[in-house]
Amino acid sequence: MLEAGYFPYRAHKNRPYIAEFLRLPDRARNWSSLVQLTLARTRQAFGDREMIKADPKLDQLVHSCCMNESWLSTALADFFRGGQVVFHIAPALKEAFLHSELGDATARDLQFPFEDSYIHIGTDVGLVFNGGRTRLEGVLLSEKSHKDGKSVSLTLVGSLVQSPSHWGERGMETFTFHFGSRQMDMPLLEGAKQHLEAQGRDPLNDEKFSDLSKFDEAERVRILESWATRDEDRRLHLENIPVVLECVRMVANALLYVSRYPDDIEDDYQDGFPPGFRERIERSQGKALERNLSKARSSGFTLIKRVGSVFERAMQVEASVGGISDSPSPHMRRAHWRRQAFGAGLTQRKLIWIRAARVLGGAVRERPYLISDGVVSG
Q1: What is the pLDDT of residues 235-246, one digit of tens each?
Q2: Dihedral angle sign, alpha carbons of residues 33, 35, 37, 43
């Protein structure tokens, strides 16, 4: 399936309120005003408010779309304000990440080269989410600092399997979840699973919320109605656990790789970049360069950070030289991240990536993946 440009640029075109928000003066450009714009435009697309309230299923869909859309609008605004950084993972490296264990790496181990960015995964991975409505394309990443420390947000984005009947249903293109402060020091997949399960839990089954006797009848009705509108959100959190965990595996591998092997990142033009735009960009500088870049981006084309070209070339050379051994009982040992001792007395630890290794008759050839002067070595 061909993807017409990266998701953030397509989403920006479909959501005029993002440009409206970015044009606001700095003092008015806050999260509250953005969410109000988002909710108003999304609700308007569904039609009459009283008609929506009369249909419980439609009411839940509207609520879910509004919540997903509000998180997406925040991630999109951060992406466009934060330099529009797109990481494109080379196919061979992406395939390696699909089979790479994260070991005991935590969310705190993830070093963000940019506070906000987009990692393109591609629909060829075959992941779907939001009840099978959406094919995963990529992830908008955001790392925020606050008084309690740091938090990490991942917004899964993709293309709808079926075109929406109207604009408002585009909220199902996305799904956002967070590593809160309590999950930052847990193994990544464990922390993600714990957060999603907590978000999917029915408050009525929680001792803290099951007793509403301290509220008057009108307040109890309001609380129960509010919980009912979030049934769809809770269900999606639980249903999305498998795809989110696979997505976390890919994104975490990419971030760990980028921070450990920066020599395997190159500035490049995205695939299909029009030659005319490319020539104008390469001939210009200063304000003219910014104008040409802006024109290219408004047409859906952008500069990217291509990750894994060195790795891909090394795998091609290794395949042509090494071949496959006929040693007894061969099998593959999965790639994984491991803390390796280093420093004086080997008292310090650093994460290294152990590439997938062929186990030959019980002898394991583990190879840390290293880059020196643009060349891969073991």
Answers
A1: 888 999 999 999
A2: negative
